[in-house]
């Protein structure tokens, strides 16, 4: 039998069992003597009795297996219930926190201008001449260049220029050369800076709120009054080319024969959309096509995709901008005198080419308007030259709405909050104050009309103190003002009103938020109670095959008397959930739901009540089964350390600094645990164990620090942080040298894993094939994939293989790897035998059977599951991240050894450290708690285009690789160096998983509380809101992975091992 | 000598273990030693307070110039207050002491020699402490002198008294490393320095834009405060108690 150092803790058990065994052996000897007697008398012999015993053994095994499966199903049911609790808490909070805006159904109409009594010379109330104001243009061409940042369009000193500078000079040059024909100004987007929200803002003139951010993957039609709706009502025709987001926002708006939509999410493809727009737009600009359209929209995506794929500072961006320059030049030459040409960006991009947040680079787009006929003016001579930076004289994106509406002579959409852009109405000399006042008054009156309806609909009272919009409105309407003064008053009114709405739409539903926090908090109490260890329970690992064997024989001898044996925890989970089916509970729940439905109330109140009620029921069931509320108090140093690490991490989220520097803080925690484990290791009595524990601890700490070199800095960390994840700060591709990392992983990682299995002689059974060939092969293929990807990005094989050939090779390779690791891997995991080998040697006393790998039978086999997921995660992670994930696996194995050697399997520190590692490696795989760090391009690793549900799944696997790997490894910590006869595995694993999830639940609860509490904080959308969204999403993902992978994995592992060794309980 | 201090109540609980053989290091039980031990704390903290502005302005220079001063204070404290490794006071509890210098009758010279050796060993330990700082996230390639000087101060404060009192007795040092040795001024000083430096890292990330947040000012301050507090507390209040008694007891159940 494999030698296994006995641990002091085994003592009691061992003695008790061996005493029992001695007793049983005496009984058996006595029986043998009886047997001999019996044989003489012709009764059943020993042999026959063995057969009977054998049959009984099988019976017992079947019975135990069935009991186990029942236990497992109840455990899974409990975890599903937990998932529901978390989902309800998050939903309640999010529905109050993620802001929503009341959408008014009112529409503007040509016949009803907001200003009454307008002279017919101004307001013809006729679309042909201009509804509310004489129109300037018959038609407009809008070229929307996605993510056209302002600094792409203004000249930069060539010495300091990046790849994105000076490639698109046409806009600036025309504005300087012919200020009456063109102007260029910074165009500030309101966050969130995602295309869908921006299109809403650009057409309705209002401020999309944060709740819309989630719907970017599947846009929904706009039913608010908007420019396109007004055009359609006025009988004008709209044509659209490019990004298909427009089609989901404006279904059936576009002229069917001449419009053409292209898929918008294929960020790998820089050219299809742009070429489609360019090829199709010029035929429409020919004079023969007059009357086919009045508004022509061309939405180019190449610049945005080049940013997402390569980052702005890349030659692909230069090429793209040059192409746009040429394109716009040509369009400007092709339009006629009565056509207005607008070129604009819907948002900018950050240093890596991503967007979504509200950093300066993300909101600063460019706006350029052009007309062949001189119409534009400047109210001051110094405005003639376009601003050098986006900080000077910016216009809001919503200002486009009244401007375009008035220029084309259609009504301004009802919900508009923008103001007319000065240049377009100031007259060629820039002094037409009467015109400026007139358009400004129209826009302001519209805003005032909207304000009154909105306040009425929401029941908000108006204030009239000085400086309020109402007071400013009154001031602007005083008789006898000069046109210029009136214009300035109106401008002030418009600015102030916009500020009011910005504040108003940051109006949170506090009761819902409180309900969400409350439900999450109560759910957390339940989870922590569930995960606490009953004082009388111990998870003692007694890996002694001889002892196990003895115990087993003892069991069989006593079999007949213990027919009714029931597992101590057989009904634990059932009784927890059983209370929910109580008639009184069901009655109350039913009444609440019925009343809610009957009175057509919003369901948040009843839902919060019902869930709280149900949780309270589970909590009381928990208290009666030995896990009282007091039981959650830590009893050991390690318990306290878990609490301190969890709480200090979570409390830190109240500070934007600690949230920003979370990655460094997690490294600090990892080192802290390492030092505590080191101190503890010095206390181990056995010299061998002590040395091994110290070795693993030191390795653990060093790996953490090594991994910390892979980082992607968030904007707020500058200038104290250097990104290493990509080739450069302004890139989102890997540097060529980084390709060495996946190859190093392929060479080294399998051997590292082997080295962890060798000491327990568990590199047996399927392990050499699985780890040495399959896993290694998968890693090699991943490395190959990233080489192909790099070759494709860098154009290394440009003259030999086409880009599409390389892309297809990569995609199919990636599909093979995913199929190998997840599908084939999971199937084999379900069927694999334990990692053991049986050696027979003859000794003097007869055949001696040695089982290699007995002492780690549970853990070594379970390890396959995390390895499968690791292989998949490494594929979908960029080269730098694959190194980080490999280090993570190494660190997890070290952790398993540390936990085993220090006998901490029943402590909470193991799962807590796994959670910390998971979060740590989230940052080490090129992520930050900001929307723009989501690596959308990973969706295209195994696919050519967006496909549901696979694309979001791949992005999730990429984003949460660290945490998923950690969640899958929770059982590994419990099962490592645990033999096949261990009792209480399911219960201990479920508890460990509970602690693990509790860590994430605490994070969700605290980020939610802080985000709610700091809802007026300057950094809310930059720091607190994204961190809450991350924590909330993580909690749900971890719940799902916990049930679907970890618990299921434990079940299949236990079934496989116990099939070979028989059931211990 | 220091039997007056209450160490009886806690010790017997785990006496069955071999590690109990490592005894606490008492300070000399005379007025001079007590006075010096107390004034050392006052002088170190006073020095820190006096030099704080310089430390913020010129961390490297200040730490460098303070190093010999702190070394002198620590050596004086060790020689005058602590029993040197292998001297009578420390000997009572144990038998063999491998790799130990001869034991001359003259306690004075022996102490000075021991102090010198301990100083050398502490210097050797400094790169290890430096590495530990880096493992906790200190910059690796820049601020090397900052970190190294910080580590040198840590060595002087935390490591030096331990080596002076324990020598190179592996059993005792393992007990110290495992915190299973009973609390005394040396262990308390080390533990306090560790915890102080740990807590010192807490304000660094905050966006308060204060000069004193720069590396390694807060660490040095935390280290000094922690070490002084730790050695005073464990010399006077918790002398002879063992850490983690409840924890290890729970584990062994």
UniProtKB/TrEMBL annotation, chain A:
It is a multi-pass membrane protein. One of its GO terms (cellular component) is endoplasmic reticulum membrane. The chain crosses the membrane at residues 78-99, 510-530, 576-598, 605-625, 637-658, 665-684, 770-788, 809-832, 869-892, 953-976, 988-1008, 1028-1047. Residues 25-46 are annotated as: Disordered. Its main location: endoplasmic reticulum. It is found in: Endoplasmic reticulum membrane. GO terms for molecular function: mannose-ethanolamine phosphotransferase activity. Keywords: Endoplasmic reticulum, Glycoprotein, GPI-anchor biosynthesis, Membrane, Transferase, Transmembrane, Transmembrane helix. Pathway: Glycolipid biosynthesis; glycosylphosphatidylinositol-anchor biosynthesis. Residues 26-46 have a biased composition (Basic and acidic residues). PANTHER family: GPI ETHANOLAMINE PHOSPHATE TRANSFERASE 3, PHOSPHATIDYLINOSITOL GLYCAN. This is GPI ethanolamine phosphate transferase 3.
Automatic annotation (TrEMBL), chain B:
It is a multi-pass membrane protein. Keywords: Endoplasmic reticulum, GPI-anchor biosynthesis, Membrane, Transmembrane, Transmembrane helix. GO terms for cellular component: endoplasmic reticulum membrane. One of its GO terms (biological process) is GPI anchor biosynthetic process. It comes from the Eukaryota. Pfam families: PIG-F (PF06699). The chain crosses the membrane at residues 65-86, 107-138, 144-165, 186-205, 217-239. Pathway: Glycolipid biosynthesis; glycosylphosphatidylinositol-anchor biosynthesis. It is found in: Endoplasmic reticulum membrane. This is Glycosylphosphatidylinositol anchor biosynthesis protein 11. It comes from Trichoderma simmonsii.
């Amino acid at each position: 039998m494999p030698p296994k150092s006995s641990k002091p803790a085994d003592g009691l058990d061992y003695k008790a069992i061996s005493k029992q065994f001695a007793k049983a052996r005496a009984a058996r000897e006595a029986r043998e003597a009886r047997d001999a007697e019996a044989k003489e008398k012709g009764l059943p012999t020993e042999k026959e009795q063995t057969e009977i015993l054998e049959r009984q053994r099988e019976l017992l095994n079947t019975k135990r297996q069935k009991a186990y499966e029942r236990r497992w199903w109840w455990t899974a049911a409990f975890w599903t219930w937990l998932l529901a609790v978390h989902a309800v808490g998050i939903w309640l909070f999010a529905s109050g926190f993620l802001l929503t805006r009341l959408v008014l159904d009112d529409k503007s109409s040509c016949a009803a201008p907001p200003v009454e009594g307008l002279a017919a010379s101004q307001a013809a109330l006729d679309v042909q001449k201009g509804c509310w104001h004489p129109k300037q243009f018959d038609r407009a061409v809008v070229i929307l260049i996605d993510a056209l940042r302002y600094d792409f369009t203004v000249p930069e000193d060539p010495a300091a220029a990046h790849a994105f500078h000076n490639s698109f000079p046409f806009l600036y040059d025309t504005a300087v050369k012919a200020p009456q024909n063109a102007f260029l100004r910074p165009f500030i987007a309101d966050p969130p800076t995602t295309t869908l929200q921006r299109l809403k803002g650009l057409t309705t003139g209002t401020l999309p709120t944060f709740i819309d951010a989630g719907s970017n993957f599947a846009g929904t039609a706009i039913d608010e009054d908007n420019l396109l709706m007004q055009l359609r009502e006025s009988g004008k025709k709209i044509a659209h080319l490019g990004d298909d987001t427009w089609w989901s926002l404006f279904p059936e708006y576009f002229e069917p024969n001449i419009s053409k939509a292209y898929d918008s999410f294929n960020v790998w493809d820089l050219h299809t959309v742009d070429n489609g727009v360019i090829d199709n737009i010029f035929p429409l600009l020919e004079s023969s096509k007059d009357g086919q359209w009045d508004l022509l929209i061309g939405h180019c995506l190449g610049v945005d995709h080049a940013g997402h794929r390569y980052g702005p500072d890349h030659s692909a961006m230069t090429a793209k901008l040059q192409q746009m320059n040429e394109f716009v030049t040509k369009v400007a030459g092709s339009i006629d005198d009565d056509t207005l040409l607008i070129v604009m960006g819907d948002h900018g991009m950050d240093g890596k080419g991503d967007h979504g947040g509200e950093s300066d680079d993300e909101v600063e787009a460019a706006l350029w308007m052009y007309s062949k006929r001189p119409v534009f003016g400047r109210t001051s001579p110094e405005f003639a030259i376009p601003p050098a930076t986006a900080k000077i004289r910016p216009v809001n994106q919503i200002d486009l709405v009244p401007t375009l509406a008035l220029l084309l002579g259609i009504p301004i959409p009802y919900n508009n909050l923008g103001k007319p852009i000065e240049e377009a109405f100031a007259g060629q000399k820039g002094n037409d104050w009467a015109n400026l006042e007139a358009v400004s008054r129209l826009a302001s009156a519209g805003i005032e009309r909207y304000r009154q309806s909105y306040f009425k609909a929401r029941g908000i009272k108006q204030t009239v103190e000085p400086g309020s919009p109402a007071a400013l409105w009154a001031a602007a309407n005083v008789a006898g003002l000069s046109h210029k003064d009136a214009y300035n008053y109106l401008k002030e009114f418009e600015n102030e009103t916009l500020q009011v709405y910005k504040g108003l739409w940051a109006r949170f539903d506090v009761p819902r938020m409180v309900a969400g926090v409350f439900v999450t908090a109560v759910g957390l109490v339940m989870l922590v109670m569930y995960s606490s260890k009953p004082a009388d329970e111990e998870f003692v690992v007694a890996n002694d095959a001889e002892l196990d064997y003895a115990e087993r024989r003892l069991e069989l001898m006593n079999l007949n008397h213990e027919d009714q044996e029931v597992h101590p925890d057989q009904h634990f989970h059932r009784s927890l959930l059983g209370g929910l089916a109580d008639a009184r509970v069901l009655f109350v729940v039913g009444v609440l739901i019925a009343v809610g439905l009957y009175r057509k109330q919003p369901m948040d109140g009843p839902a919060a009540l019902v869930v709280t009620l149900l949780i309270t029921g589970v909590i009381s069931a928990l208290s009666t089964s030995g896990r009282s509320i007091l039981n959650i108090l830590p009893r050991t140093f390690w318990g306290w350390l878990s609490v301190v690490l969890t709480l200090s991490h979570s409390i830190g989220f109240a500070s934007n600094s600690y949230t920003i520097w979370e990655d460094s803080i997690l490294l600090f925690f990892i080192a802290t645990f390492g030092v505590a484990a080191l101190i503890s290791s010095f206390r181990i009595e056995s010299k061998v164990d002590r040395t091994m524990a110290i070795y693993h601890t030191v390795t653990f700490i060093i790996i953490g620090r090594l991994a910390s070199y892979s980082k992607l800095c968030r904007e707020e960390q500058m200038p104290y942080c250097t990104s290493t994840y990509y080739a450069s700060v302004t890139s989102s591709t890997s540097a060529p040298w980084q390709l060495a990392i996946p190859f190093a992983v392929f060479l080294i990682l399998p051997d590292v894993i082997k080295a962890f299995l060798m000491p327990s002689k568990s590199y047996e059974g399927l392990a050499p094939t699985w780890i040495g060939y399959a896993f290694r092969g998968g890693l090699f293929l991943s490395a190959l994939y990233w080489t192909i990807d790099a070759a494709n990005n860098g154009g290394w094989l440009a003259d030999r293989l086409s880009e599409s050939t390389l892309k297809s090779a990569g995609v199919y390779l990636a599909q093979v790897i995913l199929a190998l690791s997840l599908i084939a891997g999971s199937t084999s995991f379900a069927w694999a035998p334990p990692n053991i080998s049986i050696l027979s040697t003859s000794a003097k006393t007869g055949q001696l059977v040695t089982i290699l790998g007995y002492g780690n039978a549970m853990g070594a086999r379970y390890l396959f599951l995390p390895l499968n997921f690791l292989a998949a995660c490494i594929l979908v992670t960029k080269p730098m991240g694959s190194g980080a994930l490999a280090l993570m696996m190494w660190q997890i194995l070290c952790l398993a050894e540390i936990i085993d050697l220090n006998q901490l399997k029943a402590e909470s520190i193991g799962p807590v450290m796994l959670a910390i590692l998971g979060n740590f490696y989230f940052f080490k795989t090129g992520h930050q708690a900001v929307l723009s760090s989501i690596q959308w391009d990973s969706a295209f690793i195994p696919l050519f285009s967006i496909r549901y549900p696979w694309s979001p799944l791949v992005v999730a696997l990429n984003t949460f690789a660290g945490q998923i790997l950690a969640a899958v490894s929770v059982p590994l910590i419990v099962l490592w160096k645990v033999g096949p006869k261990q009792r209480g595995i399911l219960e201990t694993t479920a508890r460990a998983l509970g602690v693990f999830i509790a860590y994430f639940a605490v994070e969700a609860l605290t980020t939610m509380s802080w985000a709610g509490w700091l809802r007026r904080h300057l950094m809310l959308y930059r720091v607190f809101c994204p961190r809450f969204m991350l924590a909330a999403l993580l909690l749900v993902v971890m719940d799902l992975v916990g049930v679907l992978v970890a618990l299921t994995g434990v079940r299949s592992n236990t079934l496989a091992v116990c099939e070979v060794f028989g059931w211990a309980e | 000598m220091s039997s007056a201090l209450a160490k009886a109540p806690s010790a017997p609980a785990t006496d069955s273990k071999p590690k109990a053989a490592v005894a606490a290091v008492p300070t000399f039980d005379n007025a001079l030693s007590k006075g010096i031990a107390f004034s050392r704390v006052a002088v170190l903290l006073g020095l820190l307070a006096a030099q704080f502005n310089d430390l913020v302005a010129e961390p490297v220079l200040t730490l460098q110039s303070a190093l010999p001063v702190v070394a002198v204070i620590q050596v004086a404290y060790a020689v005058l207050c602590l029993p040197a490794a292998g001297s009578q006071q420390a000997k009572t509890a144990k038998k063999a002491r491998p790799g130990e210098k001869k034991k001359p009758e003259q306690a004075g010279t022996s102490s000075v020699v021991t102090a010198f050796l301990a100083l050398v060993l502490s210097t050797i330990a400094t790169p290890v402490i430096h590495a530990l700082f880096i493992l906790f996230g200190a910059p690796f390639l820049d601020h090397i002198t900052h970190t190294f000087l910080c580590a040198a101060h840590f060595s002087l404060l935390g490591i030096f008294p331990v080596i002076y009192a324990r020598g190179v007795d592996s059993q005792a040092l393992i007990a110290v490393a495992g915190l299973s040795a009973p609390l005394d001024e040396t262990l308390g000083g080390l533990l306090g320095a560790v915890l102080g430096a740990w807590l010192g890292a807490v304000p660094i990330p905050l966006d308060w834009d204060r000069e004193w947040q720069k590396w390694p000012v807060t660490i040095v301050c935390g280290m000094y405060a922690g070490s002084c507090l730790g050695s005073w507390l464990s010399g006077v209040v918790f002398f002879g108690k063992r850490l983690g008694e409840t924890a290890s007891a729970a584990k062994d159940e």
